[in-house]
Fold this protein.
Amino acid sequence: MLPPRIVRRLIFAPLVLVLTLAVIITLPIWLLLVFLASLRLPPPRRRGMRLLSFLVVWLALESGMLLACLGLWMAGGFGGRLDSADHRERHYALIRWFLSRVYGAAVRIFQLSLDIDEPLPTEDELSRRLTRPVIVLSRHAGPGDSFLLVHHLLSRYARRPRIVMKAALQFDPSLDVVINRLPNAFVPRKAAESGIIAEIRRLAAGMGPSDALVIFPEGGNFTPLRRRRAIRRLQERGLYEEADRARGLHNLLPPRPNGTIAAIEACPSADVVFVAHTGLDDLITIGDVWRRLPSQATIRAKWWRYTADEVPRTRDEQIDWLFAQWEAIDTWIAENRPVRHLTTTE
């Protein structure tokens, strides 16, 4: 259960600062422990050192983010003016700073590279895009890909993302503080679909020209078990055509259309962007990262956009359209997913 906000502010946030200081002071001990633990791993054994390096950078950035949030809170009249447009922009700039530093650290430490396939817009298209909000529909594939998606929305496309996230993410103190000050939504794990849809409608209805609502229509990371359960649910609801199409998806869960439809209805002027990406799909838990982190990682992504007047308007057409895009993403992933060569000497 998520503790109350006052507990998270008075205990979790200071704990990050103390933990950061403690890790830095005891870093030689951690280096020795990680080195000894890495001896039990198959080559390349440097992954332990790389993970420790990234952890130290992450904690330092988390601490910097929390201190900056405290400064913004004080500058905003001790919280009284945090809803003003100027203070929102300062918080978006803070997130942009944080994610750019995380991305830079990942590039250096993990030899990470990013390859995005997106058609270059004409000048007319570019000027038109800056006057319209967008709804971003992305596959759900772990925290690494999600962080990179938000980073590029902020830095490369100058967008202000709005996201519906799991409430458990508020255990991360800096994320908890800064995201709760901006138009986003945290939903409990067992929240009813109607509640999630209501949050999506609220966020979509309030979007301006520079905003981007990010939705993950699958609702969770892909696993074979979740795929079978999703297909079974479609059959039990009598949605036999959708169930048949879901069987043809081998890398994705079938999309849940209600959230997408709610967003389009609440903001009919928005363009819709679909995002296919792959690269860190199998690195979901800390154990996955420890066991299977490659010496180099390449994330490939493909984005394509439909203008508002190209988006279907009836429910049946929207469901068919969404499944068609998901089938295209599934095919793209199969063609672009990196191959992990696992051998006894790797």
User: Anything to note?
Assistant: The chain has one domain: 5-217+255-336. The chain has 13 helices and seven strands.
